[in-house]
Write a structure and sequence with these properties.
Layout: E1 15-20, E2 23-32, E3 35-36, H1 37-41, H2 47-56, H3 62-75, H4 83-93, H5 98-108, H6 116-129, H7 133-141, H8 169-182, H9 185-192, H10 194-201, H11 207-217, H12 222-232, H13 234-247, H14 253-256
Antiparallel strand pairs: 1-2, 2-3
């Protein structure tokens, strides 16, 4: 009687491992898109270049590497007004685990209000309109909703600030800097036509709009852009969760003020409790 076993394999173009001779559970050589990670990339490629390689399976051009690095700095800390950062802060001050804080940031920052799904839709807009101003006008004024989506439809044009009146200074500064370091024609077009686009939407350009344009310039698909955007913003959420965890809820205005008793009965003495 003979038996045969089928070897299970994972299908991927991204990663390949050669096991150690004496341990099949440990890798001896790891290849990312054909590059030896620890024997070739380590010490030669930057972190941003490696991230680009993971997503696009090819090294970035010098301009694209600078552009992605600039975007990473722009998005690393969305600010304490951002919903994803506040979600992590709430988790931290409430005593949740560190993983829970990051999960809170991802969950709160995943939707269509300045979150990952807004990036997804905004990149789709770029794919449809590119640098055709008329197409942008039609798309913004008559948005196309997602079919059978778990995401709630946004009540504003993706990439624009639903609460804004004028374009915020950090948005304008970031756009100008990213143009300077990358020589991107698409970003130059966005800067030139920003006011026209803002008139179409009735809202000012947001940082999500700048990010979506960068992802489109880099050749990222909507799915890739959404995923990249989500984790690029985690550093700010992480450090604020740690800080609020140390400060405690008494110095966190959203908890401390809400836990004050207005009709405190005082201590109850010698009260029998039947269980």
């Amino acid at each position: 009687m003979t038996t045969s076993s089928k070897q299970e394999t994972i299908t991927t173009k991204i990663w390949k491992e050669i096991p150690e001779d004496d341990n099949p559970f440990a890798a001896k050589v790891c290849y990312c898109s054909g590059f030896d990670v620890y024997g070739d990339l380590l010490g030669k490629a930057s972190y941003i270049e490696y991230l680009y390689l993971l997503f696009k399976l090819e090294p970035p051009s010098p301009f694209h590497a600078k552009l992605l690095e600039g975007l990473a700095i722009v998005l690393a800390h969305p600010g304490v007004r951002d919903h994803s950062v506040r979600g992590a802060m709430n988790a931290g001050v409430g005593g949740s685990t560190h993983a829970s804080a990051l999960m809170s940031a991802l969950a709160v920052g995943a939707g269509s209000l300045g979150g990952g799904r807004e990036i997804y839709i905004a990149v789709q807009y770029w794919e449809s309109c590119d640098t055709d101003l008329k197409s942008w006008e039609v798309m913004i004024k008559k948005p196309q909703g997602e079919e059978a989506s778990v995401w709630r439809s946004a009540d504003h044009a993706p990439g624009f600030d639903p609460h804004g009146v004028s374009c915020a200074l950090p948005v304008r500064q970031s756009l100008a800097y990213l143009i300077k370091i990358s020589e991107s024609k698409k970003l130059e077009w966005l800067q030139t036509n920003r006011e026209n686009l803002e008139q179409f939407s009735g809202r000012p350009l947001a940082m999500s709009g700048v990010a979506a344009a960068v992802f489109y310039e880099l050749g990222f698909s909507p799915d890739e852009a959404e995923m990249f955007f989500l984790f690029l913003r985690l550093p700010g959420a992480a450090v604020h969760a740690l800080e609020q965890e140390q400060l405690g809820w008494r110095r966190y205005p959203f908890f401390g003020n809400g836990l004050k008793l207005t009709n405190d009965p005082g201590p109850i003495k010698n009260k029998r409790v039947d269980v």
